[in-house]
Amino acid sequence: AQSVSQHNHHVILSEAASLELGCNYSYGGTVNLFWYVQYPGQHLQLLLKYFSGDPLVKGIKGFEAEFIKSKFSFNLRKPSVQWSDTAEYFCAVNSNSGYSTLTFGKGTMLLVSP
Amino acid sequence: DADVTQTPRNRITKTGKRIMLECSQTKGHDRMYWYRQDPGLGLRLIYYSFDVKDINKGEISDGYSVSRQAQAKFSLSLESAIPNQTALYFCATSDPQRGETQYFGPGTRLLVL
Hints:
The complex is a heterodimer. Chain A has strands at 3-6, 10-14, 19-21, 23-26, 31-38, 45-50, 56-58, 64-68, 73-78, 87-95, 103-104, 108-113. By secondary structure, chain A is an all-beta fold. In chain A, the strands form three sheets. In chain A, strands 2, 5, 6, 10, 11 and 12 form a six-stranded mixed beta sheet that branches. Chain B is an all-beta fold. The radius of gyration of chain B is 13 Å and the shape is globular. In chain B, strands 2, 4, 5, 6, 9, 10 and 11 form a seven-stranded mixed beta sheet that branches. Chain A binds chain B through residues 9, 32, 34, 42-46, 49, 51, 90, 94, 96, 98-102, 104-107, and chain B through 33, 40-45, 48, 50, 58, 90, 94, 96, 99-107.
């Protein structure tokens, strides 16, 4: 069974600080990887995804993530956070077999102070 | 209009009551899912359906049942609600042609007293 581990449950940053949220997964096969964001009181929205190709993936709102296969990692980064980035961030993984469900990490709550 | 809708958006019920949460989608996806979200636990899969005739249990299906009435509709029922089913419930759809990217509804906040 696949699993996802997000290293930080809470992160507090000041505006303009750089962000890196860790995500590691366990699965022996080929995977698809996702980061979702949930703004306060809202549903989950897709931030970015990796299926294949360039391991550096760019998403919306200046976020990017790098897939490092040897480390089973898919860390999320942003060079300069804004107050509006305050949200909960979820890493998720599934196998690319076509019949796999998505497994989510427990989430990282990011609080950006102005 | 939203692609994935859920009704009701908020619900308060009492222990032992039967309730149904409904999900509809206009994305034309065959695959639909029900999750519950609890603080610190992320999203956990309750049930999923890969097409109208397919129903599968997820990680935490005990105490829940589902019905796939049509491609566009997927309902979640709590046969006899209990307080530890208090949570935020999300419905989602996915398209296998897009690597199973999931699209979420707005959620139903359920409180069981």
